[in-house]
Amino acid sequence: MTRPRLYVTRKLPPDVETRLARDYDAALNADDAPPSREAIVDGAREKDGLLVTVTDRIDAALIRALPETVKIIATFSVGYDHIDIAAAKARGIAVTNTPDVLTDATAEIALLLMLGAARQATSAIATLRSGQWKNWAPTGMLGMELTGKRLGILGLGRIGRATAKRAGAFGMEVHYHNRRRLDPDMEAGAIYHDDIESLFRASDVLSLHCASTPETRRIVNRETIALLPKDAIVVNTARGDIVDDEALIEALASGRLAAAGLDVFTNEPNLHPAYLGLPNAFLLPHLGSATRETRNAMGFRALDNLDDFFAGRPPRDALTA
Ligand code: DGY
């Protein structure tokens, strides 16, 4: 039996590539260089499907340029803002993602960002590593305690709820905004706000967990930052473009906000350079799902979707159904 032909844009974990090589005629990316648009179209030649990641911009023009043979694009990610789903659907190409499996890893990073931002970890680590730490001081390097603070979650979906659960263990009071209020069992005691203005006003720490959509892009901007309590903290594990960088940088530089913890950036890896000079910005290079367990699970979930598709079954995570 001939195996489906796949173009894989990035190097994947070894166990995932072993399964890929066993079940597919797969063109792998051994040196892991992110392919250009042209290289993706070229790599897709005579392939039945693509296995892509968040670093590949699969927009309408690229989708139109794909060969007729391509019938599915499986993304190794839960987010799919890098893929024009409508354009894929219009060409009859299925698209799948990898939800659920990165929820816990991403929630852990959200807590790390909260703690790192609240305890001024960037400047504290810099002080220690540069040999400037002279002694323990009663008034030195003071941060904010999370215990008893209000955590505002924008987007109480899977990752938002996992973050809320962990924040509850830290003694935080959880508030949230979604377009629709959740059932009480999903809320698990979180306090609902029916607009973001009310949520922002109630957030000592604001954690972003919504998808990047036309409605949420730059939703954290000068006007909405002004609603946050003075000395609030902004945490972002969702997508960089939910935040207006200039506005956040201004608020951090002026001290209007105490700190930010950011794992995702507009135009990453080329983040706004001003972040790098801010001692109150605790920054990570998009590590949300970066655990061995989760990256394997993401790969296996993407492969389960491909297996279903090529066996004629509806893939569990179809976005174009
Ligand atoms: C995703 O899967 O969308 C994440 O951003 C990758 O960590």
Can I get a quick summary?
It contains 12 helices and 12 strands.
* Amino- and carboxy-terminal Cα gap: 27 Å
> What about the largest sheet?
7 strands, parallel
Helical segment tally?
A: 12
Q: Indicate the proportion of strand residues.
A: 5-15%
Form type: globular
H/E element string? EHEHEHEHEHHEHEHEHEHEHEEH
CATH top level assignment of the largest domain: Alpha Beta
| Cofactors, ions and other ligands in the entry | (2R)-2,3-dihydroxypropanoic acid
Describe the overall structure:
- By secondary structure, the chain is of the alpha/beta class.
- The protein folds into two domains: 5-101 and 292-310, Rossmann fold; 103-283, Rossmann fold, CATH 3.40.50.720.
- Helix content is 34%, strand content 14%.
- The chain contains twelve helices and twelve strands.
- The chain has helices at residues 14-23, 37-43, 60-65, 85-90, 103-118, 121-129, 158-169, 184-187, 196-201, 222-225, 245-254, 292-310; strands at residues 5-8, 25-27, 49-52, 72-75, 94-96, 150-154, 173-177, 191-192, 205-208, 233-236, 259-262, 281-283.
- Strands 8-7-6-9-10-11-12 form a seven-stranded parallel sheet. It has a five-stranded parallel sheet with strand order 2-1-3-4-5.
- Helix 10 (222-225) links the parallel strand 9 (205-208) and strand 10 (233-236).
- The radius of gyration is 21 Å and the shape is globular.
- (2R)-2,3-dihydroxypropanoic acid binds at residues 54, 77-79, 102, 288-289.
